[in-house]
Write a structure and sequence with these properties.
184 residues, alpha+beta, Lipocalin, 8-stranded antiparallel beta barrel, 2 helices, 19% helix, 44% strand
């Protein structure tokens, strides 16, 4: 009986989050991250936790450099839920331009650091507002990726949602893959 009640409570929470996120609008980059989260929830089992897993390097040694322009895909349960262009700058900053309506804000900013041979970690912090301009908390996007010999990278991502008091609400996680864009 307790297990059944727990499953029902988790399912109810999932439905509230899906309805709440799909009914509200987010300012700036938060809009694209909320859309990404709703897409992920719609395509996953709400009673199962999604745990990110860093993919191994495809190239032995994985000594590629992250600096440059990348075409990125975020994947949950084998389905692409968002694509974007990302610029990883030499100074440790990053610009994320998701494929969403630019009127709601489609440029996100982040920071990154080198985490070992061919590995990099990225962090975004996004202010989250509803359609009436009320502060709804923050969204934290994190990525851990491995660059191969230089033309692709892959790894994991997580979206963590926090209320205005800073309390964790939920997480959506999956894999991220990217191809470097070069001048022909």
């Amino acid at each position: 009986m307790k297990l059944r009640n727990l499953k029902f409570a988790k399912f109810s929470l999932f439905m509230v989050l899906v309805v709440g996120l799909s009914a509200s609008a987010f300012a700036s980059c938060g809009d694209s991250l909320a859309t990404l989260a709703v897409s992920a929830m719609m395509n996953s089992n709400p009673l199962r936790s999604i745990t990110p897993a860093v993919q191994p390097n495809k190239a032995e040694g994985g000594n590629g450099n992250i600096v440059g322009l990348w075409h990125v895909q975020f994947i949950v349960n084998n389905q692409t839920i968002q694509e974007a262009y990302q610029v990883w700058n030499a100074g440790g900053t990053e610009i994320h331009n998701p494929n969403v309506d630019p009127r709601s804000g489609n440029v996100c900013l982040g920071v990154w650091k080198h985490a070992g041979k061919g590995a990099y970690k990225l962090a975004h912090r996004v202010w989250n507002y509803d359609a009436n301009g009320n502060f709804g908390g923050t969204i934290h996007l994190s990525e851990t990726v491995n660059v191969d010999s230089g033309s692709t990278h892959n790894g994991s991502f997580a979206l963590d949602f926090y209320d205005p008091a800073g309390n964790f609400q939920f997480e959506v996680a999956g894999t991220v893959t990217a191809e470097r864009i070069t001048v022909d």
